[in-house]
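Researcher: I'd like a structural prediction for the single chain below. Treat it as a standalone chain; there are no partners to consider.
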Amino acid sequence: MILKKKKITTFLFYIYFILFLVTMFDNPFGRIYSDNSILINLGILFILFLNEKSKIVNNSKNILLFIGIMFISLISVVFNNGGMGSLFNILSFMLGVLIFNNIIIDKKKYKFLIGVSCALFLYMFYLSFSVWDSYLRGISFLNPNSVALYLLFSAFVLDSNFKNWKISLFLFPLCIYGIYLTECRSAIFACIIYLLITRFSLIRNFVFKYKKSILYALVFLGTIFPLIYIYLYKNGITISLSFSDKSLYTGREVLWMNMLASLKNEPYSLLFGLGTNYVTEIGVITNFHNWYFGVLFTFGILNYFLYFIFLIYNISSKSDIKTLASFIAVFIMGFFESMALSGMIQIIVYILFLVSNYHVKIK
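Model: Treating it as a single chain, here is the predicted structure.
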């Protein structure tokens, strides 16, 4: 029975990440999977949970937080008519964190993940040369920021595999140049922070000592960031960066002002959120461009707190500094992107957990 469960887990592990990789390439099968990814991923994760539940249920705090999040999410969906898609999305992510933070992979699976990350890195680097042209012509299935994000985090996974610093001298210049071509400023900043944490012992020791406080501080700053951004916009304050011709204001200010106005106009919306079907003055919002504000807008303040407490509790259990620095980069990117509210980005988070678990095992 145990051997049968292990085989099922192994099979689903490979299927899950192969599907993820296929989706990154523009092909009919990938588009079909992408359109139905929430339900497919949830089904795979549910079977994995049943197979690995003996490892998962031992952590009572994790289980209680998970139950609390799902209970409030269900109430929120009923209260704000948010749709089952948002409920399945948060259920899938929470379930994925529970599973992949507790699975210890072997060397074969680890090499497979490195292979997936290598293929993703090379393909995203290739796309970075033409993504803006394709995007403006309306023929790109990935926007420039998505290309930059996948390029950055595949580089982080690859970096965790290399102990020779000379390889990083080749990896990160390529990564930064690819991001530069996409003009994604937040990704460049996140990459610099990652390199500072992982390459300088003084910063590394500080971050590891205060990891929880840093992550909570990033959640707080990320939440108020749209308010600061709106204030700067309304007062005509702009900041120019020498490496980019893009304006500081690219439309997010309009998006966030509408989200803020909607929360103010709807009674009790701050408590339970407005869901993913709510129609603002600019229509239904499909990309919040801020992870923290997105969680607050969709599920309300109760789930906002439980969501990030749950996530930080699991991240802070990691003892691998490169994984921790990668998660800090995730939180920084969350200032401008929806991050783990997207199903594909959720899988990047799972890979970071698995890679960290493997490195801890072999130490």
